[in-house]
Amino acid sequence: MTAPQPRQPPDLVQLLTRAERLMARRLTAILDGQGCSPDGWRVITLLSDGTGRYMTDIAEQAFLPPATLTKLVDHLVDDNLVYRRVDVIDRRRIRAYLTPRGHTLHQRISADIRASLAGLPASDSDRELLVELLTQLATAISDPPVAHPHPAGRP
User: Fold this and answer.
1) Which residues of the chain register pLDDT less than 70?
2) What values do phi and psi take at 153, rounded to 5?
3) 48 vs 85, 90, 130, 153, CA distance in Å?
4) For a tag site, which of 96, 105, 120, 127 has the least CB within 10 Å?
5) What is the Cβ-side half-sphere exposure of residue 37, based on CA atoms within 13 angstroms?
6) Cβ partners under 8 Å of residue 7, min gap 6
């Protein structure tokens, strides 16, 4: 009879991947009900502070190639959720902003997301800690990885 294998500690990458996929599934169900895509939601959320953002900044923060972002913003403009303006300081750059309709959609979807997450068994302090830890992790890993040489003959 073999001895039971010692329990391995949870794999961080696996846990983060699982949480991201499950959250994406939950979010997609909410967004589908509002006629919004996950990429569209990321853009709307970025613009929700009302300050406007450069298209290049949105592409970077939403993890979208510039051409894809341009097409997406074109659709959001067609839906009267976003508008674009030439930047007053640097006329070569374009800033995007939410329209009043876009702000209304953001508020409605945000409320649906909060309601969906309210049922999760975590306290407010747990959520605050999770946000803090994920922010620290994202900041720490945002720099390109440093290559570490492998010992001779090992991949």
Assistant:
1) 1, 3, 6, 145-155
2) 80, 0
3) 16, 22, 22, 52
4) 120
5) 10
6) none
CA-angle at 23, arms to 17 and 29, nearest 5°: 135
Residues written for the chain:
155
Sole residue written with tokens 């406007």: 52
Gap between the Cα atoms of 54 and 96, Å rounded: 6
Report the pLDDT value the prediction gives residue 126, as an integer from 0 to 100: 85
Asked if residues 82 and 102 have their Cβ atoms less than 8 Å apart, the reply is: yes
3-class secondary structure per residue, 54-116: EHHHHHHHCCCCHHHHHHHHHHHHHCCCEEEEECCCCCCCEEEEECHHHHHHHHHHHHHHHHH
Q: What is the pTM of this model?
A: 0.80
Token digits of residue 76: 């959001």
Q: Which residues pair with 85 in a beta bridge?
A: 95
Q: Are 58 and 84 in contact (CB under 8 A)?
A: no
Three-state DSSP state, 137: helix
